[in-house]
Structure formats: structure tokens, C-alpha cells
Amino acid sequence: MPAPSALRRTFAVIAALPLLTLAACGYGSEAKDEGTAKVAAGAKKIDGLDSVKIGYFGNLTHATALVANQKGYFQKELGATEAKYQVFNAGPSEIEALNSGSIDIGWIGPSPAINGYTKSKGTNLRIIGGSASGGVKLVVNPKKIKSLKDVKGKKIATPQLGNTQDVAFLNWISEQGWKVDAESGKGDVSVIRTDNKVTPDAYKSGSIDGAWVPEPTASKLVAEGAKVLLDEADLWPDKKFVITNIIVSQKFLKEHPKAVEAVLKASVETNKWINANPDEAKAAANKQLEADSGKALPADVLDPAWKSIQFTNDPLASTLNTEAEHAVKAGLLEDPLLDGIYDLTLLNKVLKADGESTVDDAGLGVK
């Protein structure tokens, strides 16, 4: 396992990238109140707070937050402190919302968390828990690509220059002995950076031959006739790697630890319920997706996407060290300082109280 200093080089290109343009109507959309989360009689406010503002993506890899919202687990633990929600389409806008105080706690992927922490020189956020692993696939046009070796010379989409899937794909290309310029995406494979929302249309138009993407985009492509050529989980020990973490504003964590602990209790409770009731959980997540976006996922997308995601309280911090090696191999060698990005103290307190095993920060915890 590489030393923490190696991790400082992770996703250097991300740290150098400007933040994406924010949504025209603010940082994110307000999640609709479906009336499922009721405040219990006699409940008290936590830390004297009127509300806790929680952010997440309308994405199955954020199903812990989707289900906790839909089933009322957040509100149950927060008592008379209202759980408020914002739904985001992109990590950078969620980081901006956290920085501005528009949200207090968020579910987010590793790359924007790293990017946000680096840009603030380690002052804006902490990763306080895990949420999901896996759910990333290489899907291709079966008429053009029949085997892994056929990927050479083809046009393959990733979500964004330097994002988690982009780095993973660049590393995989290198392991095949092929050459690609990381910045331009040109070489033995053409890496086309395409927003996940438009990737299915790009596939249908023939402008890409496949994509290395997270769920449910991968399953949306399969529904359009693509085939899964590789599940990224097969490339990792124990088939586990971080895809979604929980972050919190450092200011909020310092001033309102009881509220943070309550949200983490809800997350742990939700993950336990998801893993014990996968079919009901899948339906609950899809119901919340419909409430938030107005559109549920069809079964031919929802079912295979759900099967490829593992829900876990462990942030899988050690996998970031391997991702660091991937970034180094891709030539992304700048030096973002990530020491202290994790603070798992409250999560481990919750896990111990629940009789669960504690989790590790891979040497990158706050001192």
C-alpha cells in the first residue's frame, strides 16, 4: 500500500480544473416533501438547530441518502430538527453549496471531495463516512467491440477529465500497453469526456463506441443495446472500491457534532435496512428518484444497476491509495495535500454502539 504522501498526487488534474458551471437556479434543486418523514411527538431539536441541510445526487450510487429520505430515517434521528434536502447533478456544485453553507452534509463521489479539499487547502470539508462501492462498468457497442483488445482504436466516453472513472480508464488503458495523452484523450484509444446525462444519446448517435461510466448510466446504455465488457469491481481486491462518501463542512462538524452523529446514525441504520431488504430498498430509492426528478427508472435499468452497487459504512479509504497510483501512472503528478481529509471518529462511535466493526482512515485521518 502506498504511503499517504503518494495520495497527495492523486487527481492532480482535478485540482487544476476550474469548477463546473453551477445550475442556473442555484446550487441544486430542493427535494420534494412527500410527507413520509414525520417529527415524533415530544421530539427535541438537536444542538438547538432548526434544520440540517443534506445534499445528494439523484443517482443510485447515492441510494443511502435516497432511501433515508424516503423512509424518514434522517428525520427520525434528527428529532424536531428538520431534515432539508437538495439534489445535485454534479460534484463541484455540491462542494460550492457546502462551502457557502447552503448544505451542511452531503453524499458525494471521491474525486469532487478530493478536489474540494485540495482547493480549500484542507479547510472546508471532512469525509466522515462511506456509503457505496462499485457500480462502474465498461459498456460497449457489441457490433464494433467484441473483446477487450477491440477497445484499441475506438472512441470511449468517460464523465469528465480527471474524474474517478476517467483516471480508472486511463490506468486500464496503460495496463493494456496502450498510450493515451491524459489531457487531450488522444492516442491508441480516443477518450471522449462526456456528461453522463448525454452519454446515452452520444451512444445512440454513434459518436462514441462505448463508455466507462457509473450506474445507472451503464445500464441505460445496455438498455440501448450496449453490452457490459468489464465491471470495474473485478479489478479491485475483494471487488470493493469507493464510489460514494459522506462529507461535512468542518465548521458544521465542529459546532454541531450531535447533529452530525444523528445523520451518521441514520446512514448506518439505512445501510443495514438496505442490505437486509434489497428489493424493498431498491423500490424506495426509485420512489425517491421519482419524487426528486419526476421520473423513475425503468426496471430494465434499475434492476441491473442496483445489483452492481454495494452499500457500506466503510469509506474504503485504502482504495484511494491505489487510485493515487493510477493518477501517477496517468501523469497527474501535482501534489494536493490530503492528510486530514478523513474524520471517522463519530462514525466509529456509532458503529461501536451498534455492535458493528469500526473502519479505518488509511493514515489520512485528522490528527
Automatic annotation (TrEMBL):
InterPro entries the record matches: ABC_SsuA_sub-bd, NrtA/CpmA_ABC-bd_dom
Highest taxon, organism lineage: Bacteria
Annotated signal peptide: 1-23
Annotated keywords: Cell inner membrane, Cell membrane, Membrane, Signal, Transport
Pfam family, any one: NMT1_2
Primary location recorded for the protein, binned into one broad class: membrane
Subcellular location: Cell inner membrane; Periplasm
PANTHER family the UniProt entry points to: ALIPHATIC SULFONATES-BINDING PROTEIN-RELATED (PTHR30024), TAURINE-BINDING PERIPLASMIC PROTEIN (PTHR30024:SF47)
Family: Belongs to the bacterial solute-binding protein SsuA/TauA family.
NCBIfam families to which the protein is assigned, alphabetical: SsuA_fam
Protein name (record): Aliphatic sulfonate ABC transporter substrate-binding protein
Provenance organism: Streptomyces justiciae
Upper taxonomic lineage: Bacteria, Bacillati, Actinomycetota, Actinomycetes, Kitasatosporales
